[in-house]
Amino acid sequence: MELSEHKPVHRIGIIGAGFSGTAVSAALHRINRHPLEVVLFEKRGCFGAGDAYSTPFPFHLLNVRAQDMSVFEDEKEHFVNWLNTHSAATPFLDRTLACHEQFVPRFLYGSYLKDLLMQIQADSAVTRLTLSPHEIVDIAYSGSQAVLISKNNERIPVDKVVLALGNNLPAAFPFSVSEEVNCIHNPWEYTAPRRIEKKDPVLIVGTGLSMIDAVLTLYHQDHQGPIYAVSRHGLLPLSHSDVKVPYLLMQDHLPHQLRMLSMHLRSRSKNHINEGGDWRSIINALRGYIPALWERSSLADKSRFLRHLLPYWNIHRHRVHKKVADLLMQLRNRGQLKILAGRILEIEKRIAKIKLRHKNNILPLEVKWVINCMGPSLSSMQQPLVQSLLSRGMALMDPLDLGFAVSSVGALKETSGHFSSSLYTLGPPARGAAWECSAVPEIRKQSFHLAKHLLNMD
């Protein structure tokens, strides 16, 4: 790969070019004032979009309004302005609704991120951005510098490293599947359901946002066969609302422990609804305080939250557009989509055996396809680079096995107990420290603070 011939004052390597990597690159470019080289690595060679925004389908929508999707913490209208000034977005905008209120197709957001990286590359007077389609599989040290080692054994020296790895793939099925059944293991292979015949019975494992993507794809290709979706609780993401009564949440209103969160939310939601408001406003107001609440909660409390409250938190926190929720209800009402609460025991000779929740009987279902939509695995960081760092003590998993153990700015904790001065992460791999760090608003805030730290501006 070609880097600048002169040695820059500083060189930062960012591994992963989805939203997290793009956001850090953009924050560095925006606040940096001295010669800097940023090298953004992406093994797929697709820079900017990441898995979530790589779908080619216009019916896969953002799950939040455009007004909340800016890359920049200090310019909240940046994405809305991009939508209003790019003709490619025009056919997908609703002229009857203000742009900032719309839930636009996710591929438009991928185009926005790609366009932003092109702008950063073009403006290279102070910060030079290099895009490298290499997979980094290891990191060594040479003096004070980190040396990134690619799969083809190329060695790239950098001063700082950011692991912008994004979400993990779902875990493997916890049950056996006979070879007569076709499997789609990666829910982000968005065109894979095209192989499904129109009347084939389909079993989807999981009932969250990935399941909704799969159902939408099947619906828009005129699928006629039955669709079964199974999860432990059988809960679906709830919908957004047009009710706009703001809720002011002060820090001293917060519960002191996570175990009190459910009761706290029910009580405040009831009062707010009586005043003409909506529970969604309380969830939105709470988001910014979740990292502090998570940090001061005990390990046992966090573990209890993950075991018992997580499914309920997810359906309230990760919501969908109302028209998507309405379509799911339409498919359920006509009997094509069936949502089941239970556990799949095995799939043998095209018969899925499902142990239904709160029932003693086992439900047999004939299926030809099974799609893994169990959601990103919280504890499966199997990338060769991650395994190398863990095996050599350059990184530790957090106590709940949710991701890396990190400092408040995302520095990786080493087996020595010290935090690294050169290795950092953000987004989902830092979930153990902040919990809520997988969505755009949280990651852009992380990226801004991390950029300041990397440039010694904090």
Automatic annotation (TrEMBL):
It comes from the Bacteria. Residues 14-167 form the FAD-dependent urate hydroxylase HpyO/Asp monooxygenase CreE-like FAD/NAD(P)-binding domain. This is Putative NAD(P)/FAD-binding protein YdhS. It comes from Aquicella lusitana.
